[in-house]
Specification:
About 45% of the residues are buried. The longest helix is centred in the C-terminal third of the chain and has 18 residues, at about 390-405. The radius of gyration is 23 Å and the shape is globular. By secondary structure, it is α/β, with parallel strands linked by helices. Strand 9 (about 215-220), helix 7 and strand 10 form a beta-alpha-beta unit. Helices cover about 35% and strands about 15% of the residues.
Length: about 500
């Protein structure tokens, strides 16, 4: 049987940066357990009668994921069930297990980043409450928020940070029975804010604003440590120099974070925890540290994921989340790529891009009457990654695929077909590591359109040929959001020893 043990180690340094306590994880007993199962797997291929090894591989069926996870999940915690397995279906929407927990979340959840924000089209309190009413009446039970929401927020007053949690709390307070209809995920601010004292203080603040005595899923909004995965820009390269930045110095160690979250679980204040905007290393290290400390491992990670951004599926995070590995749920956000997959910016570029191209008149008009947040001075540069040349080219090909395969779905508007394809691809097309997809809506009509795409009862699943056509587009450029080709030989990026992306991050 595989067993994970740990030993503590430390080192001294003359640097002013505190050297974090680290533990080495040792895998013992590999002659048995999962190692022997893997060996028998290949023996079964090699000894197959008739046909080639590849034919045997094609015909091989993996065992039921729940049964496999029960045997293979390397955790000191009792096995509850396989993440993402369907527990029930309500209103045509699946409710799936979140990690190794008894929490079942709807396959689509309410993203609330802009609820009550200062954006021009942000939903107000009444609209937010109407969306909560409609969602819970139509099979949705998950609402995702954060202590930092809304974004953008006011420096002071009603619309300052924490207002979104208050909006949700007001809805619950009006009828306390509503609390049992919801799974609430909220977040503690990341980076240097994450320490044992602040975790306790911030969870109390969220509980008060949400008008509840427990939070279902408590997440670090971004890791305490430095990681390029959390800069929301176009860089994937690890910048060693960034480790010394003051907001990452003395970052809370994984085991201390796990222990702090475990205390909140023991106190009944949260049911489970995890991280946002992290990666496979973060999940493996955090889960390993939790095992070493003898406390519950994370049940959820959250990240940017869409038909245009399949990074998490291919960079090791999906592997780490698997029921046979860390058995951790995955919550996808920006599944519509900042609104690009609605088609609204397809024929006319975003205002910020028009401005950079020199079309100041057209840009100014859109800045004054924006179609969505891509046309605003705040979001426009920040969300550039969804508008790279490669992303726009891929989007156009996905639209053609949607028109080809979905034109008989009852929707005549071709951009609406692109929206349907983008939503259904991430929710229902065998993206097995995605437990739930968070979709932000500016109004009730948008939410109704989203749920109509997802919850069609009795509809045929996405065609295998359609999925293959999508994969063909993807394989031409696996990271379109992290491509950069302005057609100017790099002049649009800063000249000098390093280049910068649109939000000032170091690239490549």
């Amino acid at each position: 049987m595989m067993r994970v043990s740990c030993t503590s180690s430390s080192s001294s340094s003359s640097s002013s940066v505190r050297v974090r306590r680290r533990r080495r994880y040792v895998v013992e007993g590999c002659s048995r357990g999962s190692c022997s199962r893997r060996r028998s797997l290949f023996i079964s291929f090699a000894s197959s009668s008739g046909g080639s090894f590849l034919e045997s591989l094609r015909n091989f069926s993996f065992p039921n994921s729940a049964a496999a996870a029960n045997k293979l999940t390397p955790s000191s915690q009792p096995f509850v069930g396989a993440t993402s397995e369907v527990i029930r279906t309500i209103g045509g929407i699946e409710h799936r297990r979140l990690g190794n927990s008894n929490i079942a979340v709807s396959a689509v959840g309410l993203g609330t980043q802009r609820w009550g924000s200062t954006d021009f089209n942000a939903p107000d309190v009444d609209e937010c409450h109407a969306m909560l009413d409609y969602a819970t009446e139509h099979g949705v039970n998950l609402v995702d928020t954060a202590e930092q929401y809304p974004i953008p927020s006011a420096d002071r007053g009603v619309q300052s940070e924490g207002y979104t949690e208050k909006i949700i709390g007001q809805w619950i307070k009006a009828d306390p029975a509503r609390r049992e209809k919801l799974v609430i995920a909220t977040k503690v601010t990341g980076s240097s804010n994450i320490n044992a004292k602040n975790i306790v203080k911030d969870v109390e603040g969220s509980l008060k604003r949400l008008e509840t005595d427990y939070i279902d899923v408590y997440l670090a909004h971004w890791p305490a440590r430095y990681t390029p995965q959390s800069n929301w820009g176009q860089s994937l390269a690890y910048n060693v120099d960034a480790e010394a930045a003051p907001w990452y110095r003395n970052a809370m160690p994984f085991e201390e974070f796990a222990e702090a979250m475990s205390k909140l679980i023991d106190q009944g204040k949260i049911r489970g925890y995890g991280e946002c905007n992290s990666n496979a290393y973060g999940l493996g290290a955090l889960a390993g540290a939790a095992r070493c400390a003898g406390v519950p491992p994370p049940i959820a990670f959250q990240g940017d994921f869409s038909i245009l951004n399949r990074r998490s599926e291919e960079n090791g995070l999906a592997e780490a989340c698997s029921p046979v590995n860390e058995n951790c749920g995955f919550m996808a956000y920006n599944v519509l790529a900042g609104g690009m997959l609605t088609g609204k910016y397809r024929t006319t570029p975003a205002a910020y891009d028009l401005y950079l191209e020199g079309s100041e008149g057209a840009a100014g008009k859109l800045f004054r009457t924006p179609r969505g947040r891509m046309d605003t001075t705040g979001w426009g540069p920040t969300l550039y990654r969804y508008r790279t040349k490669a992303a726009v080219e891929a989007l156009e090909e996905y639209r053609n695929i949607a028109v080809k395969y979905l034109r008989n779905s009852g929707t005549k508007n071709e951009d609406a077909l692109l929206l349907e394809l983008a939503l259904r691809w991430v929710v229902e097309s065998r993206r097995s590591f995605v437990t739930t997809s968070l979709v932000g809506s500016s109004n009730l009509d948008q939410l109704k359109q989203t749920l109509a795409c997802i919850s069609a009862t009795g509809r045929e699943p996405l065609d295998d040929a359609l999925l293959w056509d999508i994969d063909i587009v993807h394989m031409r450029n696996r990271l379109p959001l992290f491509s950069r080709d302005d057609g100017d030989g790099g002049k649009g990026m800063r000249e000098g020893p390093t280049f910068e992306g649109r939000i000032g991050e170091r690239i490549p």
